[in-house]
Amino acid sequence: MDLEEFKKSCGDPEPVYLVSGKDPYAARQVFELCEEQVEPSARSFDWEIYDLSEGRKEDIPALLNSIKTLPWVHSRRWVYVRSSEKAEKELLPLIKDPVSSTVLVLEYTKKPKTWNRIPSVETSGGKGIGWVRSRVQREGFSIDSRAASLLVELVGEEPAKLEGELEKLFNWDPSSRKISPDAVLSVISEIRESEIFDLISALASQNRDKALKIAGRLFAGGTTTHQMIPLLYWNFSRLLVARERLDEGVPFFTLLKELKIWSYRNREQEVRSYTRDFLARILLRIREADRLSKSTSIPPRLHLEKLIVDTQRTGAL
């Protein structure tokens, strides 16, 4: 099933789903849909996340126990497992005979052969992303999966528009033959990097007046709401991932390299000061602003400005 089909199935979910983690951006969308199924006030009871990527065998008994735990508030608990193939043998009995009160979502890097008959959520993206990948390969380039998702998010799925922007990217750094998310941000958005990161910093620190002034300058320079919102979402998503992985003990410099958040060099304490719950709330507000800006007659700029004001009202970090 694709992402839309998975979203529809969440009302009456299957007991087990498989998700490929090869496209981090798309897998993140599945993760967020799962998280949304549990009210924020109930997540301490009915929402669990496990990451087996470090091969910590001691986490597996806790995972198995969590799957069997009865829900507290909702009719079902949701358990999301990253690098789930690390517990292939241990999870197999619970896959064959699922716990009806738990929705188990297994994100994998390499799909175990014994899990072939489980419903899978296809995270390869829509038609636009497939078209981008095919076009890039024909040109003799490669494209980071996150870059392909970001390109479609910024430009849309119309091939003619994508073709025009890809031509710019092919000429951006021909020697590398690889298109990265940073290249997409630099070439497609045409937004001064310092301004967009200043806006992110102002939002994260809940400085409403500063954020509104920066947004005003971006609007005055010709930047649209539909350009800014994907950039905000992309960057706050990376901040949330960084914050989660810092809690897991991953060194900050490693995260700078992996997530390409070089603007936060020498700012580890600032990143640590942002709580995961706060960053998650900002992401939800960004998604809502994006939805409203595309589905209502209200000028899109007002939705972005409301996002800034609402973020100010969330209170201290």
Which characteristics define this entry?
317 residues, alpha/beta, Rossmann fold, Helicase, Ruva Protein, domain 3, Zinc Finger, Delta Prime, domain 3, two-stranded parallel sheet, 7 strands
Task: Describe the global form.
Answer: globular
- CATH architecture descriptor text of the largest domain: Up-down Bundle
Count of discrete structural domains: 3
Largest sheet data: 5 strands, parallel
Q: Count of helices?
A: 16
**What are the low-pLDDT stretches, counting only 5+ consecutive residues below 50?**
none
**Strand residues, percent:** 5-15%
Characterization of the model:
The mean pLDDT is 83. The protein is globular and about 60 Å long. Helix 6 crosses helix 7 (145-155), helix 6 (127-138) packs parallel to helix 8 (159-170) and helix 12 packs antiparallel against helix 15. It starts with a helix and ends in a 5-residue tail after the last helix. It is α/β, with parallel strands linked by helices. Helix 4 links the parallel strand 2 (47-51) and strand 3. It contains 16 helices and 7 strands. The strands form 2 sheets. It has a 5-stranded parallel sheet with strand order 2-3-4-1-5, with helices on both faces. Strands 6-7 form a two-stranded parallel sheet. The protein folds into 3 domains: 3-121, 3-Layer(aba) Sandwich (Rossmann fold); 127-188, Orthogonal Bundle (Helicase, Ruva Protein, domain 3), CATH 1.10.8; 193-312, Zinc Finger, Delta Prime, domain 3 (Up-down Bundle), CATH 1.20.272.10.
